[in-house]
Design goal:
single chain, 147 residues, 5 helices, binds magnesium ion
């Protein structure tokens, strides 16, 4: 899905790590979206603090910003040729080794915690930008489908 967006809108695809402009742009996009998410969170938080209940429009705006954050993070994976979905699965598997903590609180690592090994997924595949066909072949298949 994000590959399609990057291809259509001429965004970077599998660009090298050494490309500082792409690196800085991606972080700027991420920060902008998180600031928008924080603004929507603050609206809801203020309502709850004053005894109000967030309405459907509040929640819809919050949900939109959650998706925007995920979109730019997944897009960053496409931009740098990093397999976000595979890494996310590895982080999930690691998180499942964490200890059971206080309900609703931060989940502690505990003695059985196994950190994810993302090294095999983090190696830049090339030192120069890929052509679209090469980039698409370098990306993992979409969830539940083939390339
Ligand atoms: Mg947004």
């Amino acid at each position: 899905m994000l590959f399609e967006f990057h291809h259509k809108h001429k965004q970077p695809i599998a660009r090298p790590w050494a490309d500082v402009e792409t690196w800085n742009d991606r972080m700027k996009f991420i920060m902008e979206e998180y600031e928008e998410l924080a603004a929507e969170w603050e609206i809801i938080s203020n309502k709850l603090a004053s005894g109000d209940i967030p309405n459907t429009a509040d929640m819809a705006r919050f949900l939109k910003e959650m998706c925007d954050c995920e979109y730019v993070l997944r897009g960053t994976g496409v931009a740098f040729g990093l397999p976000h979905s595979q890494a996310f699965s590895a982080v999930h598997a690691s998180n499942m080794t964490k200890a059971v903590g206080k309900p609703g609180g931060k989940v502690p690592k505990g003695p059985d915690y196994e950190p994810p090994n993302l090294i095999p997924l983090s190696k830049p595949s090339l030192n120069k930008p890929l052509k679209v066909k090469e980039a698409k072949a370098d990306l993992p298949p979409p969830e539940g489908g083939t390339k």
